[in-house]
Amino acid sequence: MKTIPVAFAVNGEPVEVSVEPRKTLADTLREDLGLVGTKLGCEHGACGACNVLLDGHAVRSCLLLGVQAEGAAIETVEGLGRDGELTRLQRAFRDHHALQCGFCTPGFLISVTEYLRDVDAPSEEEIREALSGNLCRCTGYQGIVEAVSSLLGEEEAP
Amino acid sequence: MTRGTLPGIGEVARGKWVGTRVTRLEDPRVLLGDARYVADLTLPRMLHVAFVRSIHPHARIVGIDASEAVAADGVRAVVTGADLDAHPLEDTAVHPTLPKTPQPALASDRVLWAGEAVAAVVAASAHAAEDAAERVRVDYEPLQPVHDIDSALAQGAPVLHGHLGSNVLITDRRSSGDVEEAFAEASRIFERRTHTNRLSAAPLETRGCLVDFERSSGHMTVWSSTQTPDLLRWTLASVLDHPHHRIRAVAPDVGGGFGPKMSTYPEEVVVAALARRLGRPVRWIEDRRESLLTLNHSKEQVIDLEIAVRSDGRMLGMRARYFSDSGAYSFNSATALIEPQLAAGLMPGLYDVQAYEYELTAVMTNKTPIGPYRGVGWTSGHTARELLLDEIARELDLDPAELRRLNMIRADMLPYRSATGLEYDSGSYEESLARALDEADYEGFRREQARGRDEGRHLGVGISPYVEPTAFGTEIGEQSGYPYSSHDNATVTVDPAGKVRIAVGVCSQGQGHSTTFAQLVGDALGVRVDDVEVVAGDTERAPFGLGTYASRGAVIGGGALALAAGDVRTKLLRVAAEMLEASPADLEIEDSRVAVRGSPEAALGLEDVAGAAYLDPAVRIDGEEPLLSSTRFYDPRATFSNGCFVAIVEVDLDTGGVTLRRFTAVEDCGTVLNPMIVEGQVRGAVAQGVGAALLEHLVYDDEAQLITTTFSDYLLPTASDVPSISVAHIETPSPVTVGGIKGMGESGLLASPAAIVNAVLDAIGPHDPAKVELPLTPERVLRLAGRI
Amino acid sequence: MKPRPFEYLAPSSLDEALGQLAERGDRARVLAGGQSLVPLLNLRLASPEALIDLNRIGSLAFVEEREGGIAVGAMTRQRELERSSLVRDRMPLLPAALRHVAHFQIRNRGTVGGSVAHADAAAELPALLRAMDGHVIARSARGGERRISAGELFDRHLTTSMSPDEILTEVFFPDLPSRSGWGFHEFAKRHGDTALAGAAAIVAIREGRIASAAIALLGAAGTPMRALRTERALTDTAVTDDIGAAVQETVREEVDPVADVHGSAEYRRYLAGVVARRAIADAIERAPR
Fold first, then answer.
1. pTM surpassing 0.90?
2. CA distances, B247 to each of B233, B283, C223 (Å)
């Protein structure tokens, strides 16, 4: 199958791969770059497990083709930490028991990273609405909502 | 820090860890992106599998032509049932009358459900495998399908398994107490049919397995998204005629199990057989559409329940018939009894009803085989009973909370033997109900509800108290009529550096065992939880265990660990006593320091004691094994958790939309290892209950085709659908288990659908109970309210 | 669930894209945000031979004030439109409706033109366009550009009246009539799900009477429809408390919803009346008297 070269940046590092056009960005990250932190839960855009940041915005990497990442800055869960240390966002998830099996967690961390940047004093209902684009089957969401709430109104980046 | 012991049997320490909200040790690697589920594992020269699945629910396979597929790009092999080297899968239940339905890993002469695998393609990539799978030509002769219980039982219906003679797998009856008298004495008899909706556990990680086979040694390694690696290994050895000791089965990180990831699936057999044939690693990852179609289905039963009551609402007797829509095979993990048998056995619940008779029937249909899902058959039985109780309350003009309280087993009646032979060891039934009503401000709510009615708002409340069999040791299995022996083993080892390694058969799919087990052993040995490494889910590194299901982890895994840790503690103290010239009874261990009680300067680091135990002959004594390790077995007595849920909803009778305003949970699971984890389990399970009550439904059409095959149709609750859930704890330790620990984790899905459904019906007001269909979608709500 | 193979084209100009499309006709599909198309590819429910990716054509993404309304380039992300202060100030009906389009991650990538071209009768943007009497600009290699009104655009289920060789380049949202108020309501099983029914209403009031009414409905028929009979019945009616109930009734009578696993036709019909009533009530409330 014919492959097409594509060059972009992942977590601040430039990368170049050559992939079949039909290969999604999710599969490109996971297979060609070995970044398996981004998960596949449905491959039709419903669950959010595959979320990555594309030029700062959370998108479904299962609905993007790898070749479409040309020139883009992609951030995955692997790029959120600092040298193996948990960020405030990650600590908040741990402290509020916002994960159990962990499969949905990378997707949530990505979504919440963008959300916290953009939001201003939301109600609990608004937080839940914003989180409704990520599915979790284990936690019942409360720990995640509490983790997000605990970070609101903070000056520093999470 | 006060040191004490946990209640129950055995000396289990309670120190600084047990009972506290320790944040999970597992979390950092997940948060940093280092968790590795089976789809994340790769091996050199790995090949990928795609399955060819039947599009017909019932058909003869006339022929399979794989020639085009074999010739396709990147394809290494195509295998069909005819050339697969494997025996069919069969359950291992020991039951006097339960027939088996051997299930081939790949169907060869006929298919019994749409989705059944008929061939497997192995190729260089998942893409190529999927491409080639489309080119396998299967010639089917479609046969008439049976799409539900009625059509399966109808005269002249096609019989799925000839040796059964009909589509009834098993019928079972049981009667206790004087049911006839109870019904004769009753002032009223109420009856109701409840058809519970077919559900998928839908873990966010689908299934998958990677199998590596080394030809030179015959050694096979299986990584599978499984709850039961030891059982998987055993089954593969048997089904593939492969030496058991040359198979290693590993559950890597698993993204949710909930029941249906109990082994063994046809796909696991096929992938293992392929790896063995090709001598290369072979991996299969289930996609979501496959998962909704082929992961065990659950929960669908038709339950006809009759309750005989006295004029004051006291229940005198029950009669019930259970029909389970079991799908095409009695699946090997837990058999088709997993729904009807368990529903039947727990129908009296925590109410004092001794006159009870039932008949259960497991029916085979051309649908996906059913399997266990959190709460198993208890959910449907509980829902059927609680719905009827609210109906009784309305008919007799009784408060539904009072009706339940009136009928409950009282504290002074415990231990209590149910009509079906379950021995409830201890519990807090009335206390939980009272606490839940108090936390939910039930009185205040009724006033709010009345005010709401005046304002045109429709608020409702549902109360759902429950008792829950847990841990599934052999005794409770026997009591439940559920024929599986159950136990686990655990090993605790202190290494020469004074660090602790525990190995246990109970593995995690998100339950946080690495933390709770570390807490238990941390207190037992006086070490910090970060000094404890937990190994589980690997048949090469952990002792034989039956895996994780039936809320057994804390009781069985925890119990075996507590026993083993106790042994190791004894050895440590004996060595330390020798070194400190004191008596072991005068020593304590805290934060890895062994000290004479009251003389903190007479102390040693645990690493010094451990080092000496391993390497200093002077501290050894005759007759004692110096190795600081112990492996213990535990098969617990029957133990039951309990609790109560109160759901408060508001219904929009213009749209049928339901909003959950408040959800209150009271949970009594005996000795609590980590309340944060208990709360997480309750909340997660209640969220699944929201789905069961309002959103989720695996819908089949009249041709036995599954219509709901993606997450656009099978709707999981989101953060907007699940409310904040308050969880209050009561601790009634079990008198019969190690540490007084009881199992938990399933109650949320066992009892919350009833609470939510009853709340919605309470909000709607008068309606025809016969028209209640589950799940209560907005449309169904409007129909019940008479709006359409 | 991996797509079947396809040829991938990434034109850097609109003319290039039009040429590629003209050459391939219906063997090719245009890729905009991909939030509707890529799931179909993954599920193998769509298997075009070629995909023409518009994402590198920068000139197709813009939000511009024009006389009489706002012009939005087809490749403008829905999220950008939703968060634009220009749009919020000038036509707040748009962000109010866009909030309901799936989830923000989808809107980060999904495009305005893509949603309109997808022509889902249950989607927000096509209904808004119909309510506002907007139009689109379509271009082709052979015939330059043409303007298609919302009324002419949505003529069949999940298909627009555009020719296979046309690409939608711009969506024009006219300003709401002066002295009008707007309302938007939809109902879905979960937040962000496809609407079971929805309504966008724009109402102008003069001297206590409805001067004009536009009601577009989501999920009420095979195409995004205007409740024309209801609009006619409303025009010149006095604004009283009975209007809501009357609207609910007439809308119920004029819709023709399609049933699926999420709701019967009967339920959707009932719901259409409810959301229309609520949207009209909000529009009347917002309309200056």
1. yes
2. 6, 16, 58
Long-range contact pairs involving C83-92 (C-beta distance under 8 Å, separation at least 24):
C87/C63, C90/C65, C90/C175, C91/C132, C91/C173, C91/C175, C91/C176, C92/C182
**Which strand ranges, in their side-by-side order, compose the sheet holding B168-176?**
B168-176, B355-363, B315-325, B301-309, B188-195
Mean pLDDT of C187-216: 97
Rounded Cα gap, residues B39 and B766, in angstroms: 51
A63 in reach of chain C (CB within 8 A): yes
CATH 3.30.43.10 for the C7-53 domain, yes or no? yes
Query: In this complex, which of C53, C102, C108 lies closest to A58 when CB atoms are compared?
Result: C108
Helix (H) or strand (E) holding B316: strand B315-325
Q: What is the largest CA-CA distance in chain C?
A: 62
> Among B78-87, B545-554, B682-691, C107-116, which stretch is predicted with the lowest mean pLDDT?
B545-554
- Residue B5 class from Cβ within 10 Å (0-12 exposed, 13-18 middle, 19+ buried)? middle
Decide if B456 touches C, using CB distance below 8 A: no
Domains B27-35+487-634 and B408-469+637-788 belong to one CATH topology: yes
Residue B1 pLDDT grade (very low, low, confident, very high; cuts 50, 70, 90): very low
CATH class of B27-35+487-634: alpha beta
Q: Write the pLDDT tens digit of every residue in B487-499.
A: 889 999 999 999 9
What does CATH list as the number for C59-174?
Answer: 3.30.465.10
Distances (CA, A) of B602 to B496, B581, B594, B615: 21, 10, 9, 22
Higher pLDDT: B624 or B110? It is B110
The pLDDT value recorded for residue C252 is 97
Q: Does A143 touch chain B (CB under 8 A)?
A: yes
Residues 229-248 of C with CB under 8 A from A: none
Q: Among residues B699, B705, B687, which one has the least CA distance to residue B749?
A: B687
One fold for C7-53 and C180-286: no
* Closest to B17 in 3D by CA, of B590, B519, B526: B519
Instruction: At C276, give phi and psi (nearest 5°).
Output: -65, -45
Calpha distance B144→C39 (Å, rounded): 33
Do B281 and B275 touch, CB atoms closer than 8 A? yes
| Helix axis angle, B558-580 to B513-525, nearest 10° | 30
Q: Which of C191, C261, C271 sits opposite B713 (nearest CB)?
A: C261
CA nearest neighbour of C3 among B127, A49, A40, B72: B127
> Phi then psi for C280, rounded to 5 degrees?
-65, -40
* Nearest CB to B204 within list A47, A84, A109: A47
Which domains, ranges and CATH numbers included, belong to chain A? Answer: 4-79 (3.10.20.30), 88-149 (1.10.150.120)
Nearest 5°: CA angle at B624, between B623 and B628?
Answer: 165
What DSSP character marks residue C119? T
Is the Cβ pair A111, C55 closer than 8 Å? no
Q: For residue B575, what are its two tokens?
A: 């060595």
Q: For B53-105, how does the pLDDT look when each residue is reduced to its tens digit (9 = 90+)?
A: 999 999 999 999 999 999 999 999 999 999 998 999 999 998 999 999 999 99
Given an 8 Å threshold on Cβ–Cβ distance, is C8 in contact with A63? no
Cα separation of B693 and B681, whole Å? Answer: 18
Does B408-469+637-788 carry CATH code 3.30.365.10?
yes
CATH class of residue range C180-286: alpha beta
Q: Is the ipTM of this complex over 0.95?
A: yes
DSSP letter, residue B692: I
